[in-house]
Specification:
about 85% helix
């Protein structure tokens, strides 16, 4: 994977960095924890400006989240609720969960986008509820750009400072991303296993309120 990333950067330069960061949001197995430190190392070796590296990575990352935003916007809350009603167990979502998530995002949307861009595996998915809530595209892009710039600057900066030891970044940041992914997987399995029980509780709550 690192050979592919390095070849893309050497062949396409700043455009290659932007393209890789775009693909990172569409095809997660290409990790930003590898892309940006390597790009920072190339800046340290004088192949390109560090600022150009950060700008390219931020633009690519930003373009990569836009399709997910529009996916959420096109589906909308009602379609997601119908989807949850049909396939709720495997989505681990009930229609009530969709409604609560939408209501929560409408209250904290900007901060959720900003800080979500700094969390592994969440960086891309946070775009979907933003689209569902019809957050203004300009606002979404501004907060996504800020969060993306912070993330790419951190990774590129560490790669720049470490020079040829840029791979150490992946050694430290990569396991953190893996740990987060494992935790999310465990939570998913738990939610699938207990979905029926949660749905019954929600139904009882509705009947009590009625």
């Amino acid at each position: 994977m690192d050979v592919f990333v390095q070849t893309m950067m050497e062949t396409l330069g700043a455009f290659g960095i932007a393209l890789l960061m775009f693909l990172e949001n569409i095809f997660p197995p290409i990790p930003s924890e590898l892309i940006m430190p390597l790009a920072g190392y190339q800046a340290a070796s004088g192949q390109m400006s560090l600022w150009l590296v950060i700008l390219s990575g931020t633009i690519g990352s930003l373009l990569g989240v836009v399709p997910w935003y529009y996916a959420g916007s096109i589906l909308g809350r009602r379609r997601l609720e119908r989807l949850a009603e049909r396939h709720g167990r495997w989505l681990t979502l009930s229609p009530e969960d969709v409604g609560r998530a939408d209501d929560w995002f409408r209250r904290h949307g900007a901060l959720a986008v900003l800080f979500g861009r700094l969390v592994p595996t969440v960086r891309t998915l946070i775009s979907v509820p933003a689209g569902v809530a019809h957050m203004p595209l300009a606002t979404f892009l501004v907060y996504s750009a800020i969060g993306s710039a912070v993330w790419t600057s951190f990774l590129a900066g560490v790669g720049y400072l470490l020079g040829q030891q840029y791979d150490l970044v992946a050694d430290y940041v990569g396991p953190v991303s893996n740990a987060v992914f494992i935790i999310i997987a465990i939570i998913y399995v738990y939610r699938v296993a207990t979905f029926g029980k949660r749905q019954r509780r929600q139904e009882e709550a509705r009947q009590a309120d009625g």
